[in-house]
């Protein structure tokens, strides 16, 4: 916005809006799922295991959730303690653990999925499907841009006008 262009202002607003939507969407889901005694980290882990298929490794789950392994371990310890997840030795690597949902987890995942479906329906009600499809196409392009390595930051000029070197 320093350059005063409408494009820069629009890009700024998009960034702010995406961040606000993400926070508010998750808060709405958290509110709906709180009755099951699950934090966001816990229900996200359960859904990721459910959607990713049985036998995913802890490392793969951490990658899907975009978190570090040690952070995930605490969540998995709790889920395992509640009887929702089992860790098993990976057949291809004794050091790795694979994750498996228990029978106790399955009805809970159905309730989480139903809550998420309801929240999506509430949030997106009244928006025509064609507009949603266009929005999704744009957001997918944004996601591709974010997945690419970040360019190096611009080199700032020193106060005396000379570039560091």
Automatic annotation (TrEMBL):
Organism: Dankookia rubra
UniProt protein name: MarR family transcriptional regulator
Key words of the record: DNA-binding, Transcription, Transcription regulation
Example GO biological process: response to stress
Domain (HTH marR-type) ranges: 11-144
Cited Pfam families: MarR_2
Entry's Gene Ontology molecular function annotations: DNA binding; DNA-binding transcription factor activity
Organism superkingdom: Bacteria
């Amino acid at each position: 916005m320093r350059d005063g262009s409408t494009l820069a202002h629009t890009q700024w607003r998009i960034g702010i809006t995406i961040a606000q939507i993400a926070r508010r969407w998750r808060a709405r889901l958290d509110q709906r799922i709180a009755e099951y005694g699950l934090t966001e980290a816990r229900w996200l882990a359960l859904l990721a295991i459910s959607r990713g298929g049985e036998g995913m490794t802890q490392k793969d789950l951490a990658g899907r959730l975009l978190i570090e392994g040690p952070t995930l371990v605490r969540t998995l310890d709790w889920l395992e303690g509640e009887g929702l997840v089992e860790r098993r030795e990976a057949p291809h690597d004794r050091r790795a653990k694979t994750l498996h949902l228990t029978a106790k987890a399955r009805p809970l995942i159905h309730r989480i999925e139903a809550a998420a479906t309801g929240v999506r329906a509430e949030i997106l009600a009244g928006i025509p499907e064609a507009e949603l499809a266009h929005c999704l196409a744009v957001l997918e392009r944004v996601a591709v841009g974010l997945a690419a390595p970040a360019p190096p930051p611009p080199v700032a000029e020193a106060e005396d006008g000379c570039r560091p070197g």
